[in-house]
Amino acid sequence: MNSNPHNTMSSAPNSDSGRNCGLDCGEDTLRLIAGLPAPAGLEERVHKALRAAPRSLVLGSGRVLAWPGRFRARIASGTALESNWMRAAAAAAIVFVVVGGGWGVYSRVQPGPAGNVIVMPQLMPSSGGIKGAGAIRVPATIPGPKVKQPAKKPATPKKAATGRHAASAPAPQPAVSQ
Amino acid sequence: MEIPTSAVNEEARRHAEDAAVSALVDQYAGALYRVAFSVLRNSSDAEDAVQEAFLRVLRHRDTLAEVRDHRVWLIRIVWNIVLDRKRRAKTRPETDDVSELARVLPSKGLSAEELAAAAQHHAHVLACVDRLPTKEREVLLLSAFEELSSVEIAAVLDITESSVRSRLFRARNLMAELLDHNRNLR
Predict the structure, then answer these.
(1) Chain B within 8 Å of A33 (Cβ-Cβ)?
(2) DSSP per residue over chain B, as a string?
(3) Using one digit for the tens of pLDDT, what is the confidence trace for A31-47?
(4) pLDDT computed for residue A94 by the predictor
(5) What is the pLDDT of residues B97-120, one digit of tens each?
(6) Residue in A43, A73, A75 closest to B67 by CB
(7) Residue B103 CB neighbour total at 10 angstroms
(8) Average pLDDT over every residue of B35-40
(9) Would you kindly state where each structural domain of chain B is located, as residue ranges?
(10) Which of A158, B89, B117, B161 is the most exposed place for a label (fewest CB within 10 A)?
């Protein structure tokens, strides 16, 4: 059965591809399992499964864009994960290009210099009507209690000037005795 | 009424592709089953994996002409499928390897007792295989297939041939250690 001279497990016992363990390494078990015959009628059952496969599955899953030819064989042999990973990477690359392009345009376009500002006269409201002319309405207040004015005291005579001011001050008039 | 030439060509092409897929089924279904069984160790799961692999081939049948080595390509497809299934099955309880092995292993010239002991031994070896690191385990499993050369194993696993050899070296050493360790424990 072993017709392949390159097989690593069927190499000579003194080969350097691992410990020479023979049966001890459990390779007999692995070989036994690897040599098991396929169950009878397997091919027929596979044919039947392929015939019963839904049309959509056979014709593909309706992708809008197909991978380039040299990638398709790799994707077919790989897991769905690999295919999905590549799709996600491609989608991320597209998003990156679009966002990057948008940002590039945005960052290059500078806002133009501000034009000469002309102050326009304020437009009067066109509705018309009577103006208040700046009058402020003052609310009427309650009159408070009236306080009596204290009686006026008679004026007291001024004190005589003393010290330095006395010289400059006019001399007091002598009191006139009556 | 005239039938367009493109429609005729398309139909003929489809028939040719269907015939090619059918030929692949006849030629490689057994080999793919063995690869699947070596990982899943359950005959019905292995058969499901083979069917899924050919459904995938049917889906990508327009790429058949671009594939250089159909056998390696198909083994790679089924290999990825069974690894995926095995990963998902980790959450489920392990299948009873001993009884499954006793059912499928050849029993010519063996008494029931010997058969049970052989199944026990094989299950024990497979338990040790399961304890190997993933990279080493994969190479060891594929190297058991005498149809596959180290170059083809490298193509299936998408690694270099020297990596195959070094991983196989490590796998054998680890297996010997595990089996020695278990033997000493007994």
Answers:
(1) yes
(2) -PPPHHHHHHHHHHHHHHHHHHHHHHHHHHHHHHHHHHHH--HHHHHHHHHHHHHHHHHTGGGGGG-S-HHHHHHHHHHHHHHHHHHHHTTSPPP-HHHHHHHHS--TT--HHHHHHHHHHHHHHHHHHHTS-HHHHHHHHHHT-TT--HHHHHHHHTS-HHHHHHHHHHHHHHHHHHHHHHHHH-
(3) 888 888 888 888 889 88
(4) 95
(5) 566 666 667 666 777 788 778 878
(6) A73
(7) 11
(8) 88
(9) 1-94
(10) A158
User: What are the structure tokens assigned to A68, written together?
Assistant: 């380039």
How big is the CA angle at A39 (ends B168 and A77), to the nearest 5 degrees? 50
Q: Are B21 and A58 in contact (CB under 8 A)?
A: no
Percent with pLDDT over 90 in chain A: 7
pLDDT of residue B92 exceeding 80, the answer is no
From the centroid of its chain, how far is CA A126? 46
Chain B CB contacts of A69 under 8 Å are 63, 66
Report the alpha-carbon angle A63-A67-A68, nearest 5: 145
pTM of the model: 0.59
pLDDT at residue A32, as a whole number: 82
CATH topology of domain B1-94: Rna Polymerase Sigma Factor; Chain: A (1.10.1740)
Tell me if residue A86 falls in helix, strand or coil.
helix
Phi-psi region at A61: left, alpha or beta (left = phi > 0; alpha = psi -120 to 50): alpha
Asked if B146's CB is within 8 angstroms of A1's CB, the reply is yes
Q: Of B101, B55, B46, nearest to B79 (Cα)?
A: B46
Task: Assign A154 to helix, strand or coil.
Answer: coil
**Pairwise CA distance, residues A30 & A32, whole Å:** 5
Which residue has better confidence, B165 or A71?
Answer: B165
A50·B25 Cβ contact <8 A = yes
